[in-house]
Amino acid sequence: MRKIDEIMAYNKEFVQNKGYEEYLTNKFPEKRMVIVTCMDTRLTELLPKAMNLKNGDAKIIKNAGAIITAPFGNIMRSILIALYELNTKEVFIVGHHECGMTGIDPNNVVSHMKARGVEDHVIHTLRHSGINLNRWLTGFDSVRESVENSVDIVRNHPLLPPRTPVHGLIIHPETGALEVVIDGDRYLESHG
């Protein structure tokens, strides 16, 4: 059975049996927080459980590595929308140990693209059009430094509401143990 057919068959039963009822909530997060974390499959259920979150508690934004690189990119836009339009008050950047973005080689990624059918001329055109694939596809060497850099981008954003706590954490992908890298409240206290 095709994956899409499997999903649609399950979904039909889910809706008919009212499986959604236990997840009913509204669009405003109960705990008034927005989280940026990694798309790693190990975190899908572990991160909310480790942070004591249930459906409706937080806005969760996921990408490869929980990395924020562009102050005016999609991730930062989503954070700002959550803060200004969806009633969130705090930002949490949550990286994790054993992340697939650690030490990722952009040249390797490009070679995998070519192996899967992207033609050389497409890569060549992108590079000569000013797209820096090496920068765009680069991961990080240290999850701690990556979390610190992402927190710094958010904290120093000109459109961030003043006095917004921006926290940085690292989660262990097997145990769910959380480590505080940056306590956003303490940072605000010490920086007046």
From TrEMBL:
Pfam families: Pro_CA. This is carbonic anhydrase. It catalyses: hydrogencarbonate + H(+) = CO2 + H2O. Belongs to the beta-class carbonic anhydrase family. Keywords: Metal-binding, Zinc. Its cofactor is Zn(2+). PANTHER family: CARBON DISULFIDE HYDROLASE (PTHR43175:SF3), CARBONIC ANHYDRASE (PTHR43175). Its EC number is 4.2.1.1. InterPro entries: Carbonic_anhydrase, Carbonic_anhydrase_sf. SUPFAM superfamilies: beta-carbonic anhydrase, cab. CDD domains: beta_CA_cladeD. It comes from the Bacteria.
